[in-house]
Amino acid sequence: MVKLRLKRCGRKQRAIYRIVAIDVRSRREGRDLQKVGFYDPIKNQTCLNVPAILYFLEKGAQPTRTVYDILRKAEFFKDKERTLS
């Protein structure tokens, strides 16, 4: 099973996170299938690769709770509903 989850990067006390598609059995810094975005909680910046995220969601990937909240704040699901309608 594939999940969309966060992968920690950066240095001590200055973490940034990549949003990656990764196998459930892999560890947090394990090998990912594809990088689909990043999130910087300090600067509150988000960059998303929307076509890649849509591809993995259509294939059955499940976002973790944190990634789901990040996507919701970026209004990702509103755009998705518009394209499906």
UniProtKB/TrEMBL annotation:
One of its GO terms (cellular component) is chloroplast. The gene is rps16. It is found in: Plastid, Chloroplast. GO terms for molecular function: structural constituent of ribosome. Belongs to the bacterial ribosomal protein bS16 family. It comes from the Eukaryota. It comes from Urochloa decumbens. This is Small ribosomal subunit protein bS16c. Keywords: Chloroplast, Plastid, Ribonucleoprotein, Ribosomal protein. Transmembrane segments: none annotated. Pfam families: Ribosomal_S16 (PF00886). The keyword Ribosomal protein applies. GO terms for biological process: mitochondrial translation.
